Amino acid sequence: MSKVIFDISMSLDGFVTASDIRPDEPMGVGGQRLHAWAMGGDERGREILARGAAGIGAVIAGRRTYDTSLPWWGADGPTGPARLPLLVVTHRVPEKVPDGGVYRFVTDGIDSALRQARQAAGGKDVTVMGGADVARQFIRADLIDEIQIHLVPVLFGGGTRLFEHLGDGHIRLEPAEVVESSEATHLRYRVIKRSP
């Protein structure tokens, strides 16, 4: 069966966006620093990105991520020319959606989003890419098989924290891989499933 992988870049102090998010700064002021490892001259980072992308069949994101990122993604979505389906978890379908876009809007929760993403992925992995709220919902529901964090050497001091409000129980992780590059340390953990 395909895996459900949560994949995100994070500052050393635990933020997945910087402060002051606005339409022209969807990652907060200076927040694009979190993606430099994937966009710049970091060869190992590009290898990590390409290896991860090869196994993905569908992507899940939250509505806030969709709204703030759409101007940059356009109709192709976050996977660009690969045009993988992006399932957006939302309470309401937006009024304006790009013609010919890869977007599917899921209004009946994360279980439905995952079911639809698995079907769309055709046996490949499903990536949950953001934002923090949707990721926390998937983690709390024990629906994530792996967590991949691209830990960027920057301290934001504020923004959107990732690992808050996960409940009182511990979530055990098993280290699977650590890759150091010039722009980030790439951490992959297997989630140890909780007993029913």
Automatic annotation (TrEMBL):
InterPro entries: DHFR-like_dom_sf (IPR024072), RibDG_C (IPR002734), Riboflavin_Biosynth_HTPR (IPR050765)
Pfam families for the chain: RibD_C (PF01872)
Domain Bacterial bifunctional deaminase-reductase C-terminal, first and last residues per copy: 3-186
PANTHER family registered for this protein in UniProt: BIFUNCTIONAL DEAMINASE-REDUCTASE DOMAIN PROTEIN, DIHYDROFOLATE REDUCTASE FAMILY PROTEIN (AFU_ORTHOLOGUE AFUA_8G06820)
Protein's UniProt name: Dihydrofolate reductase family protein
Lineage of producing organism: Bacteria, Bacillati, Actinomycetota, Actinomycetes, Streptosporangiales
